[in-house]
Design a protein that fits this description.
- The protein is of the alpha+beta class.
- It has 16 helices and twelve strands.
- The chain has helices at about 15, 20-45, 70-95, 100-105, 110-120, 130-145, 205-215, 225-230, 265-270, 275-300, 320-335, 350-370, 400-405, 410-425, 430-440, 460-480, and strands spanning about 5-10, 50, 65-70, 120-125, 185, 190-195, 255-260, 300-305, 310-315, 340-345, 375-380, 385-390.
- The strands form three sheets. A six-stranded mixed sheet has the order 8-9-7-10-11-12. Strands 2-3-1-4 form a four-stranded antiparallel sheet, sandwiched between helices. Strands 5-6 form a two-stranded antiparallel sheet.
- A hairpin with a 5-residue loop joins strand 5 and strand 6.
- Helix 2 crosses helix 3, helix 2 packs across helix 7 and helix 10 (about 275-300) runs antiparallel to helix 11.
- The protein starts with a strand and ends in a 13-residue tail after the last helix.
């Protein structure tokens, strides 16, 4: 009998986001992709017909759907064991790049326990009859299985052992006070330091991510370098070797995190009547994921994760909106669907976990704003966050960005306009407020800038103008102009 087999491998969000450095974040996404790809390749080698992903060599899918003719339970068990073996192989290969001295400082028994319990592997299967009904049934079963958490007995034997700084649910496998000089050996024979702080206790998986990220240092672009690219698009991390990171101020210390995914993908998949049609859609999503990497690269960004309809990327602030638009247009062209994206503008010194959360919140705002939209959120150090959500066909950033770049307006204009709107009373006429706003603008060089005109009562118009002020403030950051060019106030 032919079955439809669905497999989910995790953890995903928590595992990837548990990162102090960009390299940790990148390592988390890459390790998860390697494990998922290995599972797809193993199923393919056992003559399973892959549906999602369509290609066993595709990156990104942590969920697998396949048509199988053998015992699905046994195949799922075998796949789980293969993925577990792959994780241990990645550990051995990566940790093998450490010096013998530091390998000897790792608590190997605890490592084996943690690697053995780390993966979340779920599987469900149903007999394949009518494809749409069978697919929905196996999706429901898989979701139900994932909702039933495994509660294995806790046997960490870690009394008195400090918890991991990146994953407090697990005990440390190293004493960081002995790891100040630790480094990994790169392919060219050089060494890359792990930069483990004296208080940074790490569990097995976090240590794996730190070492893996260091080995990939030639492709990882850290947050500070990404901020610098707003001024110097060709800036690279190696240029900063020897600099005193704590005492050098960046002329533009903000960068952008972009999170995007397709809208109503469940509905789109439900319209696929047979495995071939679904496989074709999977291939289209793989193609989009590959092209998304090129788009981010063209905008001087760094792709952290791209798989299916999901994108997570770091970008210079002055390229973020253009990149998001290009991704949306590419998704519309290839997938015939719409994309929602969130862009968070954050300081490079802000903890990475908080900045990622801000970006995901922006993406949710785009979804909640009606989908097919872009949400841009500004998180300054010390200021209240502000956010603007617009549908792709109503984006109005270009004119504001150009006004800042050409110095036609300065940061003072937004604050002057905000003060005017706040002082205006609700019983006063809205058209007079518009004229007063135009009078303020007339003192600037950007006299052609469009200030929204009133179309309703004064309270509503005041709210509209305050949203315009928020957009003006965000646009100043998105313009990428040097921080000293607009110093003086908090936002």
């Amino acid at each position: 009998m032919t079955h439809l087999l669905a497999i989910s491998i995790g953890p995903v969000q928590d595992f990837i986001a548990a990162a102090r450095r960009t390299a940790d974040l990148y390592a988390g996404s890459q390790i998860l992709q390697k494990l998922s790809k290995h599972a797809a390749q193993f199923l393919h080698s056992k003559e399973a017909e892959l549906i999602f992903p369509a290609d066993p060599n595709a990156d990104g899918a942590n969920k697998i759907l396949a048509k199988v003719s053998t015992d699905p339970k046994q195949l799922a068990e075998d796949t789980r064991r293969e993925v577990q073996k792959k994780l241990k192989a990645i550990w051995e290969e990566t940790i093998g790049k450490l010096s013998g001295e530091h390998r000897g400082l790792i608590d190997d028994k605890r490592v084996q326990e943690q690697l053995g319990s780390f993966l979340e592997f779920y599987a469900a299967w149903v007999p394949l009859k009518k494809y749409p009904e069978s697919r929905q049934a196996v999706e429901r079963l898989l979701a139900g299985r994932k909702a039933l958490r495994d509660f294995a007995p806790t046997r960490q034997n870690d009394d008195g052992v400090p918890k991991s700084a990146l994953d407090p649910s697990r005990a440390a496998v190293i004493d960081p006070r002995q790891w100040a000089e630790a480094s990994v050996r790169l392919e060219d024979g050089s060494y890359r330091p792990l930069r483990i702080k004296p208080t940074e206790f790490l569990d097995a998986v976090s240590l794996l991510k730190r070492c893996y990220g260091a080995l990939k240092s030639e492709v990882v672009v850290d947050t500070r370098t990404m901020a610098r690219r707003a001024i110097n698009p060709e800036a690279m991390p190696d240029e900063r070797w020897g600099e005193d990171d704590d005492h050098i101020q960046e002329p533009q210390p903000y960068f952008a995190i972009l999170v995007a995914d397709g809208d109503r993908m469940g509905d789109l998949i439900s319209r696929q009547d047979d495995p071939e049609a679904h496989r074709s859609l999977s291939k289209t999503l793989d193609d989009f994921a590959r092209e998304a990497r090129n788009i981010v690269l063209k905008h001087k960004g760094f792709m952290v994760y791209s798989g299916g309809d999901d994108v997570l990327a770091f970008l210079p602030v002055n390229r973020a909106v253009a990149c998001a638009k290009a991704l949306s247009e590419e998704f519309r062209r290839r997938v015939k669907g719409t994309l929602s994206a969130g862009v968070a503008i954050v300081h490079y010194r802000e903890p990475l976990s908080i900045s990622l959360e801000n970006a995901r919140d922006a993406e949710k705002a785009a979804k909640n704003g009606g989908r097919n939209a872009l949400a841009v959120a500004l998180h300054t150090r010390g200021g209240a966050p502000i956010q603007v959500v617009q549908h792709w066909d109503a984006l109005s950033w270009d004119e504001l960005l150009e006004a800042y770049r050409s110095r036609q307006i300065t940061r003072g204009f937004a604050h002057e306009l905000r003060d005017l709107v706040r002082e205006w009373q609700d019983h006063m006429r809205a058209d007079y407020l518009h004229k007063e706003a135009l009078r303020v603008l007339a003192r600037k060089e950007a006299r052609e800038l469009k200030i929204p005109a009133p179309i309703t009562d004064t309270p509503t118009y005041r709210s509209d103008l305050l949203r315009f002020v928020d957009q003006l403030i965000i646009a100043r950051f998105l313009s990428g102009i040097r921080e000293e060019a607009h110093a003086g106030t908090s936002a």
